[in-house]
């Protein structure tokens, strides 16, 4: 999406708007800012805000009433507490000389993903992933929140080149910005509150639509692999409580009767793709610095070779459906388990069966009672999982039926995700345009 100064900014077709330009501009003298509205002042961030740099050391103990904030705690515009419940006491703050971010501080990430921001609602402490930006009297927290988020690309570019991207206090202090008068800051922030809320509501609606599509998709798969395709088929008791009735002619076999463990070490010196298990996509290439290949060396000789149509299980995360039949050739972690599948079973059918919601719910049976730090499903327990086995020809029909009838759901999910991506791009562009003066939002209260 272009964000050229002379072009209109538009959103999803359902909410099309056009935004006007300021009547008069001047050269900011800053390359990335370009022209800014007349009346806006060029400032360094350190001239309009106090910068609070957290201590490097993490408190050795937690206990108190002042939240300790990490990147995982960020969600939304405001932040007031730690999701993990980690807090520190005044004594720890004093002893370690920790820096407290007062209410009104804008926390901004200064490492890796630059420009993640939130406004502090109550005094708290952060780790060194963030810098605290406390506005002085001529800049508002609300405007500063959108400003720092709106220039995240510039922050990212400023931090590039290092082994681990990090912006120092000096980088932030010398950051050149164009600041509008305080009343105009309030207007811009209020405008962005309204517009981003509208966009966020539309994104949430589309995400919920995807969830409903996935629910319908999974229901279709579950019914097909556990009840078959013939609604008038004669049924029988499976003898397994959680499975219930199944079509006559279907067999119930424990999984150890249809798969066989294999261990093929990657010790022949060949270069092979590194594979991983995705809970949603199954077996996928694992990307290392944009490369899917991993070269064999002393540390990966124990990695296992996986071939197409082999069942792969991550015993640590099987509860999250990290199980599936591979369509790829490559190597996987030695912690994974790899199995050959009996020729009487169609690999595609087994993949759909073990990833169906009914089966995912059953994996929990084998970890109940385990300690929280030991969530690995033992192979002896995994072997006890009962599998529904139709005749081979019926397996083929079930797979073809599922592939044919889920394609429409898959297409809708792809299309909706594309719409969400465009909305997110527009949201980012709109914030950037408003806080850098590329669009004039004064008077939009009346238009809203």
In short:
With about 450 residues, the chain is of the alpha+beta class. It has helices at about 45-50, 90-95, 140-150, 150-160, 170-175, 180-225, 345-355, 355-365, 380, 390-435, 445, and strands at about 25, 35, 40-45, 50, 65-70, 80, 85-90, 105-110, 115-120, 125, 130-135, 175-180, 235, 245, 250-255, 260, 270-275, 275-280, 280-285, 295, 305, 310-315, 325, 330, 335-340, 385-390.
CATH superfamily of the largest domain: DNA methylase specificity domains
How much of the sequence is in beta strands?
A: 15-25%
The biggest sheet, with number of strands, parallel, antiparallel or mixed sense and barrel status, is: 5 strands, mixed
Structural class: alpha+beta
| Overall structural domain count | 3
Using the coordinates above, name the CATH class of the largest domain. Answer: Alpha Beta
- Gyration radius, rounded: 28 Å
How far apart lie the N and C ends?
24 Å
The CATH architecture name of the largest domain reads Alpha-Beta Complex
Number of helical elements: 11
Q: Quick check: average pLDDT?
A: 84
Assembly type of the chains comes to single chain
Looking at CATH, which topology of the largest domain would you report?
Answer: Adenine-n6-DNA-methyltransferase TaqI, Chain A, domain 2
The global form is elongated
Low-confidence stretches: 1-16, 369-373
* Helix residue percentage: 25-40%
Strand order of the largest sheet: 4-11-8-9-6
* Tally of DSSP β-strands: 26
